[in-house]
Amino acid sequence: MKIKTLMLGWEFPPYISGGLGTACYGLTKAMSHLGMEVTFLLPRMGPVRLGGKPEVIPESGLPHVRLHAVSSSLVAYGRYGNPRSAQHAVAKAAQPEEPPEGPSPYGPNICEEIHRYATRVMKIAESEEFDVIHAHDWMTFPAGIALAAHSGKPLVVQVHSTEFDRSGEHVNQSVYDIERQGMHAATRIIAVSNYTRNIVVNRYSVPPEKVEVVYNGIDFSDSADAAPVQATSSKNDKVVLFLGRITMQKGPEYFLYAAKRVLEKEKNVKFVMAGDGDRLYGTIDLAAWLGIGHKVFFTRFLRGQDVARAYRMADLYVMPSVSEPFGIAPLEALQYNVPVLISKSSGIAETLQNALKVDFWDIDEMANKIVAVLRHPPLQETLRTNGRKEALRFRWEDSAAKVNEVYRRVLNVA
Predict the structure, then answer these.
(1) Global pTM?
(2) Per-residue pLDDT at 14
(3) CATH match of 220-391 with 3.90.180.10
(4) What is the DSSP string of 317-346?
């Protein structure tokens, strides 16, 4: 039996702005390669055709995958951080060069837009054939719940991030309630790590047997030449890279405090912070306040070859996340032959062995390990070589095969 999946996802090339979109695309592409049939519903800011029919994107570029655009102002938070209001979400899509600064409370409009999105998804689904519904993260959960109730088809939800990851202990109750409702309504939950699985079980009171772990992957085939030999000896300064959302969850402040400690020991080091987020301007101010503003370079959000160039110029990638459900960026860094230093509060830390690990709050230890890598080329080379070999184990095809197993158990098919 070939299972047909109705996927409630986020982004698809060329519209990729963060880890969630990267994960949706990587998984869907691998599912296509395995011959799995997917109808991918993609929220897009845009018009709807007359007669109430949604805009149809004609080509996914993948066999077995059809794309439908759902007119909606919902956008993934990969580029900007926690979407703290509907106005924030709309502003991000309309004026991406000026993300708002600081947290603001969720407004009622975000719930209204989620409801509108669910209504449009229901309309599309009337003309679609599918065996299982697969919803990614909280803003698609209400649509998934409604579809499952209307169609009688099982709902699988995939948790890439929770409100506890995004907001710490200061969770928004409305978002938490939507997440919890989606998890309990689902037939099965896919978590991207055991780290996330534990949050789902302990914070949302979900039965452990209902939650399965499927790690994310990385596509090495897209960048066969991604890892040239690095000529670091020709550079005057070493480069330490932070690449990700500049928001509370990602720990940019800890990165800067560690950078100050590093510069007290090593003068010829530059720190590059690539990304946007609600803490961008506060982080810039902090760098100036610490007296290291001349050593920290903010690139804003990067795409495509600019991302590749950022990795290629780096001697070390640091992910100091406060709470990271998985962490695709360290695998990307290893793909480009860059050794990595990662937070212990991450899903990738539980399975990646050839990486330096540190508590996100321990800025002295973080600084010591950064200095060790920069001072000792053999350590850097060992982490780089062994880390890249280990990263090859994280294949989207394996993730897709495990998702297919989840589907088959849910549908009770051989």
Answers:
(1) 0.87
(2) 67
(3) no
(4) EEE--SSBSS-HHHHHHHHTT--EEEESSB
**Enclosing H/E stretch for 120:** helix 108-125
Q: Is the pLDDT of residue 50 over 80?
A: no
Q: Which CATH number fits domain 4-217+395-411: 1.10.357.10, 3.90.1150.10, 3.40.50.2000, 3.30.70.2120?
A: 3.40.50.2000
* CA-wise closest residue to 407 among 195, 208, 133, 137: 133
Which residues, 6+ apart, have CB-to-CB distance to 199 below 8 Å? 162, 164, 165
Which residue has better confidence, 128 or 48? 128
List the chain domain ranges.
Answer: 4-217+395-411, 220-391
Top-confidence residue, 243 or 10: 243
> Mean pLDDT over residues 126-131, rounded?
94
Q: How far is CA 280 from the centre of its chain?
A: 18
The single-letter code of the amino acid at 305 is: Q
332 Cβ contact partners less than 8 Å away, ≥ 6 residues apart: 218, 307, 311
Both structure tokens of 167: 């907001």
Q: Which range (48-57, 312-321, 396-405) has the least confidence? A: 48-57
